[in-house]
Amino acid sequence: MRNKKNDWKKYIIVFFITIALFAVAAGLSNFFTNKKLNDIRSIQNKLSTDILSSETQFLLLSDLSCKQDSGEVNLSGELNDLAQKINYAEQNLEDNSQVIELKKEYSLLEIRDYLLIKKINEKCGEKFTPILYFYTTANNCTECVKQGYVLTNLREKYPVLRVYSFDYSLNLSALKALLTIYKIKDTELPAVVINDKTYTGFQSLEKIEEKALQLNTTASNTTSSNTSGDSKHK
Amino acid sequence: MIIFYVISFLIIYIQVFYLVTFFENRKDILIRSDGNKLILKNYPTVTIIVPCYNEEKDICLTIDSLIKLNYPRSKLKIFVVDDGSKDGTWKVLQKYNSNPLVKLFKKENGGKHTALNFGIEKNDSEFIGCLDSDSSVHPEALKRIITFFNNNKETMAVASSILVREPKNIIQYAQQAEFDMNHYMKKMLGFLKGINVTPGPFSIFRREVFDKIGLYRKAHNTEDQEIALRMHTHGLAIDHCPDAYVYAGSPNSVPKLYRQRVRWTLGFIRNSLDYKGLFFRPKFGTVGMFTLPSGFIPILGTIFLLLYYIDSLLNFISNKVLQLNATGFYSMFNGNIHFSLFYINTNVFLFISLLLYAFIIVSLILGRKMVYGRKVFSVDILLFIIIYFFLSPIWLLKSVWDAIRSRETNWVKERDYSLNTPV
Q1: CATH code of the domain in which B108 resides
Q2: Is A95 contained in some domain?
Q3: N or C: where does chain B have the smaller number of CB atoms within 10 Å of the terminal CB?
Q4: In a domain, A1, yes or no
Q5: Is there a domain that residue A57 lies in?
Q6: What is the pLDDT along chain B (423 residues), one digit of tens a residue?
Q7: Which member of B20, B154, B330 has the closest CB to residue A14?
Q8: B346 touching A, CB under 8 A?
Q9: Which chain B residue lies closest to A35 (C-alpha atoms)?
Q10: Nearest CA in chain A to B13
């Protein structure tokens, strides 16, 4: 049997083995975090190319039928997927600075897509209803969370609705320009812009539904079957 | 977050410490097969004391197993001390009246420690053992334990390997997995002379232990922990004999398991506080530097984990309430759910948790190899992880709460018969 004296060397060796195991755990976590960030980055790059392609295509084929154009620019699925991944990454990944950078790039893509949609609407009549949504993660904004649920729900119900969400606290000059144009203040968040009109504070599902869909007669015609189908669930 | 890292670092540290000890001593782990009957050079005199209270159902099984011990009859005595039972225990015991190995005593009820002390004072054997009245022993157990004393004169007490007696339901199988894991840890502590409990089911002491440190004391219904700590304050070593099997009655329902664990944990906290002078004092060796401090880490860890999960659950509920409020009841179930590997959480927490589960499984496999001589992996381990994951935070929290409120546990309430019996 061993002597009762403490084996200090062993205590120290165990300490270093534990540090090594922690380092392995941190390394693995870091590896997967980078993999996820790269995943977001690659979606973002693809989207960027797609939007640029759509913009170019729109300019080239401006005299062709609007029907053809609208199909090509429908990138909302990818944008939503990207938004979900960035949101998840922001809440769960440890390297937040990289996520913030990706979020900025995502916001720029949203603005570009928004401008493209506006051009299509001008050219082809009201095909899509863009909604700008401004929120904050800086304060514990429960109204923003609620507004997020409402807009997600509406976006799933009505494909003609294009929701672009922007984090107010993001330090991005293009976003600042948007905030100035629509006179958004951080004390009045959440804020929603529908057809260039700003609504501050929480807007209920019914209210947005009314404002967004009434304005777009083309949209209501094209989605009438969809809307009536959903209304049964209410 | 920092609390999480500190606690998980300490938990991993403890597990690595056991594993390193295992690799240092693996060649010294002794498992003897039943086929090879041990023959000792010297058979010292041994008295096994069986304290009992309202144990008419199981007491015969206990005594019969002691009678069947493979040990010279002239060297073995069995003292059965009825601690004022109110049921038919004394009547049942009369069948051993004529057995020369067994001596029966009846005394006023005073608690388990008084019954043990009564037996200790009434005999002059070189070795004294105790056996809880709901446990039975393997025929070779005593001889195997005595070899530990014969091989090392410094060893003052030896604990056995406790197995669940005839496990029947998932609660008992889960306990079996836990016990198997404990064999490994106890043996490692045995190598380091850091065992902090000499369990009621079949621990054997040299007589001089009681001469040096005195008899059992009333100690928060965990006298077996108190006497072990008192031995350490006197520098008396305790070892563990992995192949001395004792089959102990175990709680067969969640409420009974809960009560037993509250008693054990509360006993550990109270006894540790009574012997706080041992903590981080190098002169008391492993028990002060490792065993006692490491006993508190899982308590803190589990409570922290519970608070973390409660916080996550409350967040989830509050988000769902917000969603319900914002979009109505039906829309909550209409959302598009996209599964993607992307959403699998791969933070440090996940890898540290996986590491911890790996350590639990390794402990169990090594514990089984140590006790049964072969590596066994079974579903018990999953039962253990699932059941203890949900239940242990509750009994740990209750124990800490009771420790703060200075509440005592009730030992007798863990047993079947005694739910309506006053102590």
Answers
A1: 3.90.550.10
A2: yes
A3: N
A4: no
A5: yes
A6: 788 889 989 999 999 999 999 999 988 887 777 666 778 888 999 999 999 999 998 899 999 999 999 999 999 999 999 999 999 999 999 999 999 999 999 999 999 999 999 999 998 999 999 999 999 999 999 999 999 999 999 999 999 999 998 888 999 999 999 998 999 999 999 999 999 999 999 999 999 999 999 999 998 889 999 999 999 999 999 999 988 999 998 999 999 999 999 999 999 999 999 999 999 999 899 999 999 999 999 888 888 888 888 888 998 898 888 888 887 776 666 555 567 778 788 888 889 989 988 998 899 889 888 887 776 777 788 888 888 888 888 899 899 888 888 766 665 555 543 333 322
A7: B20
A8: yes
A9: B342
A10: A18
Packing angle, helices B380-405 and B348-372, rounded to 10: 100
Residue range(s) defining the domain that contains residue A39? 9-125
pTM listed for this prediction? 0.82
Residue B6 contacts A where some CB pair is shorter than 8 Å: no
From CA B280, how far away is CA B371, in angstroms rounded?
A: 31
**Residues of chain A contacting residue B193, judged by C-beta atoms under 8 Å apart:** 1-2, 4
User: Are A46 and A118 found together in one domain?
Assistant: yes
Mark which residues 263-302 of B lie under 8 Å from A by CB. 282, 285-286, 289
Strand partners, A42: none
Task: Please state the separation of Cα B163 from the chain's center in Å.
Answer: 10
Q: Total domain count for chain A?
A: 2
Structural domain boundaries, residue B35: 6-294
A window 120-179, beta carbon within 8 A of B? 142, 145-147, 149-150, 152-153, 156
On whether residue A157 sits in a domain, the answer given is: yes
- Complex ipTM, two decimals? 0.85
**What's A131's domain CATH number?**
3.40.30.10
CA distance A90 to A82: 12
Distances (CA, A) of B174 to B120, B160, B235: 35, 20, 35
φ/ψ bin of B48: left (φ > 0), alpha (ψ from -120 to 50), beta (otherwise): beta
CA distance B371 to B240: 11
